[in-house]
Amino acid sequence: MKSVGQKFVLSIALLCVLWGCTKDNYKEPQSTITGRVVYQGQPIGVRSNGVTLELWQHGYALFNKVAVNVAQDGTFSVKIFDGNYLLTRLRGNGPWMDQIDSIPINLNGTANIDVPVTPYFTLSNDAFTFNKADSTISGTFNIAQVVTSKAIENITFHVSTTGIVDATNQIAFASISVAPPANAFTAPVTLKIDIRPRMYTAGTQATAALLLGDILKKKYAYVRFGVKPIGVAERVYTMVKRIELQ
Fold it and tell me: What is the pLDDT of residue 62?
């Protein structure tokens, strides 16, 4: 004779069979929204995992957002179910002016969206060279001011062992931050980094030798410039480039 507890377990098992245990049978989303954050048709470089868009869907009891992370090259991609969505830009979450309007998306399989923004600055004509004689990396680029009311707080030059490069993903001993020159908007900006470990203080030479020695041994590194507007958390960046160290 079965106990009450045994009968309860059997009842639950029977219900699971009858209902098909639907909780475990939900399909994963198969549709995709891809896109770019752009200004005048050109993607904007940002910090990896530093900028997020939001996807909203009306018409359901639970009106929740889906966070959409923007990659460092200004692109994004998200898997989601078909439906009608609104894509929004968060306030204060990028090196551009706040925009309160939303972009409607009618998703049926795939959708590719350009998200327009107005950056405070744009960066262009970036080029890098390595001088083997003194182990320095030099770089030059142009800065254009898009929003005249916003000034530059600092200009940064980032070097990394990997293709993810920004203010939080870099070799600290091979990255610099400088005040903007007076002619930052009218002439190319040039920066130089010395990647020889012996150029650093005795207290940091061991760490510098480890980090810098890695890229010197590989004979390549990844580089990019950044420009931080005053009063804005995020920088605008050039696209990541690989430079040969030989």
Answer: 56
Class of domain 25-116: mainly beta
Strands 121-131 and 136-145: antiparallel
The strand pair at 189-194 and 241-244 is best described as: unpaired
Question: What pLDDT, on a 0 to 100 scale, did the predictor assign at position 2?
Answer: 46
Cα atoms in the 13 Å half-sphere on the side-chain side of 96: 22
Which SS3 state, helix, strand or coil, does residue 18 take?
Answer: helix
Cα torsion 95, 97, 98, 102: sign: negative
- Residue 65: per-residue pLDDT: 84
What Cα–Cα distance (Å) separates residue 140 from each residue in 69, 73, 241? 29, 19, 13
Q: What are the boundaries of each domain within the chain?
A: 25-116, 121-244
Q: What's the predicted TM-score (pTM) here?
A: 0.83
Contact 131, 138 (CB under 8 A): yes
Alpha-carbon span 46 to 75, nearest angstrom? 10
CA distances from 16 to 19, 21, 22, 24, 65 (A): 5, 5, 8, 11, 31
pLDDT digits (tens, 9 = 90+) for 11-37: 434 334 444 444 555 678 889 999 999
The answer to whether 25-116 and 121-244 have equal CATH topology is: yes
Quickly name the fold that domain 121-244 has: Immunoglobulin-like (2.60.40)
Q: Which residues of the chain have pLDDT under 50?
A: 1-22
Classify residue 86 as exposed, middle or buried by CB count within 10 Å of its CB (0-12, 13-18, 19+).
middle
Q: How far apart are CA 228 and CA 180, in angstroms?
A: 10
